[in-house]
Every structure is written in structure tokens, then in C-alpha cells.
Amino acid sequence: MKKMFDRLALSLLPLPLLMAAAPPSYPEKLRDETLAGDAVAWDIVEDLTTEIGPRLAGTEAEARARQWAVKRLKALGFHNVHIEDATMATWVRGAETAEIVSPFPQPIVVTALGGSGATPPEGVTAQVVGFDSIDALRAAPAEAVRGKIVFVSHAMQPNQDGSGYGYYGAVRRSAPAVGTQKGAVAVIIRSLGTDYHRNPHTGLTSWNGVAPIAAGALPIPDAENLERMLKRSRNVTMHITLTPRFVGNTATGNVIADVPGTDPDAGMILVGGHLDSWDLGTGAIDDASGVAIVTAAAKKIMEAGRPRRTIRVIWFGDEETGGAGSRAYFATHKTDNVVFVGESDFGADRVWRYVSGFAPANKPLDDRIAAALFPLGINRDKGEVEAGADLGAWIHAGSPGADLGQDGTRYFDYHHTPDDTLDKVDPKQLRQNVAAWTAMLSLVANAPEKIEKLPPRPERRQ
Ligand code: ZN
Ligand code: ZN
């Protein structure tokens, strides 16, 4: 019924009003062109995952990826393309096997968490003690854990904003250190994921000064199988071998590329993602897509003519295993006049919300961005802008910025697994990302008004 009234109302409008729509202005035109046909982002994701593949931080593969990135960014026409070196303590995977010895002997799948210590080469055999949360492990007396293999479960669910990762992520980040302090011989967790593939999800664990022991993740089907065994028997014994190691300090680095602006006094814009990936997959959604999205948007703006503000694109090194790249960049550049930052590191599914952090004086710019995102189906949302692991430090230091939040419903089906591969990227949704970034960046880069800084904000601890 309502539709009919709408049609009736439209038909009653005087014709000149319908035809009076202004020609699309600059950001809208660039937005619509990228939405219809951007190929820059897809080509970066396809070529990087094909020609380099996995690129674990600090390894020779990450170094090859940096050289690849320099070549690609120069070929795309960016200015001042260069690498800024950093060093990091580099961790590499070793052997990883596990099996239930008794009472239900069978192999299970396991992968080491980033930063894991090692078992002896022949592995360890011990009784498994299970906890359904990290809080239950924290509350357990040390004698319940000492000499055992600790297993910690959780109930992370898929959701659009991906917030379950922050909350349930404590299991991966902290359970190994907690178990170690209570005398465990190894700690294994239910993967921080939402799929039922037989793929374990790796990811960094934090030791906080505790000497690392073997720490691994089981795929969800294997974790649930172990839970069933623990319900049937008080004496489940497992043999596990994990032999990753730290190989000492090696090189990492950030790859920088600029779109030079006309007005150096107007401040600069930083956008980025990370070039490194975990070693299990080819890092298509984490984070070839992120660097591809921001790069394609910056290139689109560059092609349309020189913007007022310099846009710097940064492909960070070592986001996954400790953040040496972002720390080095912030330490070197913290006195730069950065007036806007944005990070893309949550896959390539469509952007559904815009969360901004501008000073009150810049509300008109904020409003113009929201209006340009509106036709892409992007909600303007409340909340604090975060950027991410690579650029969050700038937000905390008082730079304005914005998050273009992607749909995270299926992100944790693939995140940090062997399944993070090109076929998981939907070209249409990738283009919607590029269109959103193009609209936002062209408005910020060319805003005629001054972009004001904000008061510094303390880092939030999880
Ligand atoms: Zn990651
Ligand atoms: Zn990432």
C-alpha cells in the first residue's frame, strides 16, 4: 500500500523538480566509478596471494612481499615509494602433531599459536584437564593443573561486528600464560573461530614475562570431540608435539607510498593495513584485502587530480606476531601533522557502518562523509573510533579518524586458517569497500576547512 502512495506522490511532483538533480560531484563520481569497475584492489589481492602467498612476519617471505609491494606501488604511480626498516624477534612453526593415547585413541589436528614454546622433539604425553572458560582456569588450584595438558574451551559465535573476537579472544591471548603459571606442560584451546572445518586457527598468544611452553589450537570439531571424551572419562591422555622456535632478530619493515597534496600546512592522512600474514593460508582476507582496498582508493583520488592533503598509504610489517612495524612507524613519525587515519584489517566483506572520531568543529565534514556513504548501505554509528593495531596509536595520540566497519559474520570462519585464500574474497563486496574508502578519503583529503586534533585518549586494555 505504501509503495502505491509513493508512486502516486512521485507522479504528482512537478517534472522540473525530478530533473533538477545536480551532476554528481567529485567524491560521488569517484565512488560510483570504483563501485562499478575498480580492478586495482582485486589485482593486488590476486597477485600478492599468487606470487608471494604466505608471508609470516620477519621471514624471507615477508621480505619478498616488501619488494613485491614496492614494485607494485611504483607501477601504480605512487610517489615516494620506499621501505622503512624495523627489526623483530622472529618465530617460526615446527612440527605439530597430536593424538589421544587413551581411553579413545585417535589422531587430532593441532596448530601452534604464534609465540608458542616447544615440547621436546619427541613430544609430551600427559593427562588432559579441561576448562570451559579462561575464568575457570584462572580459578583452578595449581594442583589441578600441574603436570597436565590444559584444554580451554569457549563459546564464540559469529556476529556482524566481530566483537566476539575481542571478548573470547582472551582464551587465545592469555590462557597459555595462565596455564603455564599453574604448572601445565602444554596448553591447547578451542580455536578462536566460528566454522566447523577441520582447520585450526592460529594467532598470537601473550606470555607477559612467563617462559613460553607449547601452546596450540584445535579445530572446533576436534575441540568438541575432546570435550565429549572429557565428559566420558576422567583420565584422557594425550600425546602432543609442537616444535616452533624463535630464530632471533630479523628484518621486517613498512612499505610507504604517497599521493602528494598541494597544501603541506593542511596536515596529512595515513591509511593502511598489513602486508604480513600468518603462514597457514595466503592471507587474502587478512590482510591483502585491507592493503588493496586503501591503495585502490588512494590511487583513484590520485588519478582525479592532486588533492589538498597528502595521503600516505602504509603496508605495515609484522602486525600479526607483535606489531614491530607499527611501533617503528609511530616512533619515527610521531611529530608528523597527521589529521586523519583509517585502517582496513577485517576482510573484504561489505562495509556496513561508519564510526568517526572528529573534533566538534569538524561535524560538517563528518556529515558530508556520512552522506556520501549513505547510498552504499552504510549506517552511521555511534561508538569510539579505533583504527586498529597498525594505526590505533595515532587515534590515541589525538588524530581524528574513522572506521569503515565490515561485515564480520563469516570472517572468523577463515581467519588465521589455511582457508584464508583468494576464493573467500567476493569481488563485488571488495569494490563496495573501495567505493566507501574513495568517497571518505576524497572528502577528507580535499576538505577546505581545518581538521582539528582531539585530546589524547588513553589506550583501552582488554
Ligand atoms: Zn590477523
Ligand atoms: Zn589482520
Structural features, described:
The chain is an alpha/beta fold and 462 residues long. It folds into 2 domains: 25-91 and 248-446, Zn peptidases (Aminopeptidase); 94-243, 3-Layer(bba) Sandwich (Glucose Oxidase, domain 1). The protein has helices spanning 2-12, 15-19, 26-37, 40-51, 60-75, 134-139, 163-168, 170-181, 220-232, 284-303, 324-333, 363-373, 392-397, 411-414, 427-446, and strands at residues 79-92, 96-102, 106-108, 111-112, 124-131, 149-152, 186-190, 214-218, 237-242, 245-259, 268-274, 311-316, 338-343, 351-357, 379-380, 401-406. The chain has an 8-stranded mixed sheet, with helices on both faces. β14, α12 and β15 form a beta-alpha-beta unit. The radius of gyration is 24 Å and the shape is elongated. The chain starts with a helix and ends in a 16-residue tail after the last helix.
Helices and strands, with pairings:
Elements: H1 2-12, H2 15-19, H3 26-37, H4 40-51, H5 60-75, E1 79-92, E2 96-102, E3 106-108, E4 111-112, E5 124-131, H6 134-139, E6 149-152, H7 163-168, H8 170-181, E7 186-190, E8 214-218, H9 220-232, E9 237-242, E10 245-259, E11 268-274, H10 284-303, E12 311-316, H11 324-333, E13 338-343, E14 351-357, H12 363-373, E15 379-380, H13 392-397, E16 401-406, H14 411-414, H15 427-446
Parallel strand pairs: 5-6, 6-7, 7-8, 11-12, 11-13, 14-15
Antiparallel strand pairs: 1-10, 2-3, 2-9, 4-8, 5-9, 10-12, 14-16
Helix pairs in contact: 3-15, 4-10, 10-15, 12-15
Bound molecules: zinc ion (2 copies).
Residues 274, 286-287, 319, 345 line the site of one zinc ion.
